[in-house]
Amino acid sequence: YDIKGRDDDKPIPLLLSDSERMRDVCDDPSEAAIRLAERHFPGALTLVVPLTEAFPSELNGGRRTVGVRVPNHDGARAFIRACGGILAVTSANRSGDQPATSAADAGLQLGDGVALILDGGEMPGIIPSTVVDTTVEPCRILREGVLSSDMIRQALDPLSFGERQMKIAVGSDHAAYELKMAIVKHLKDKGVEVADVGTHSLESTDYPSYGEAVGNLVAKGEVEKGIVVCGTGIGISISANKVPGVRAGLAWNTELARLSRKHNDANVLAMGARFTAVPYALDIVDAWLETDFEGGRHVRRVGLISEIESKHKA
User: Fold this and answer.
1) Among residues 83, 263, 298, 312, which one is catalytic?
2) C-alpha dihedral over 204, 207, 209, 213, to 10 degrees?
3) DSSP 160-178
4) N or C terminus: fewer CB in 10 A for the chain?
5) Residues 259-284: what's their mean pLDDT?
């Protein structure tokens, strides 16, 4: 706590050598916790689970819950295993500072207070782990990091997140009003809950407001995804992408829609009403909604997009 400048009441997560160790710190992990661990341990996922009575709550700010993670690094797991399989540790940086991406960075930040630094090589990026609270039902994403909310939902289906009715935000300007209304009806007919942010008439209006409104709902997690439409789809997609956390992809056919999900984890679909007839637009919507993020090599690339965004935040 002293070396990091960390508040005394801030909990310290536990790093585990393997997923089986989770039962050593949690007597009764939920089915959601077990499923997420099976899918994403080792990896960039921290699960909040109930802390067993055998562990002192002082290690966790007096809480009876704890964050656990299995690092995706052979050397780190071997070291944890040599120390008994469980280590109470935090990231190697001063609280509030950028994460250290190398042993040299850690040394500069933590100074002489650290007796030993093990150099496991340079980290590929600074996007943190995704944190999911599995002690509540449905479980809740506390921080979206390398693993997107879609990847978490896919792992849990049909549990928790998967049992909720999907909610999608839809917005357009006057040029795409009629297409937007067709999309709204199509989604409702499929049993999807729709947050229609407008516009609500053919009266001339400005597309940036509706791109931002949809983007805000997506970024805040109030809806699963968003759909924005204007005359070309270009202006409203640019507007939505100005909201941190939004990845809006413009598609004018079903293949582009699928690729925006598979490779870019797009959480907002953009279309142009002047260039996309209603029947084709509805096919594009269906293709986009039915396609999952592939993960794999694309996780790093989507993470790099988030890093660019972080660098330019005011």
Assistant:
1) 263
2) 120
3) GGGGSPPEEEEEE-GGGHH
4) C
5) 95
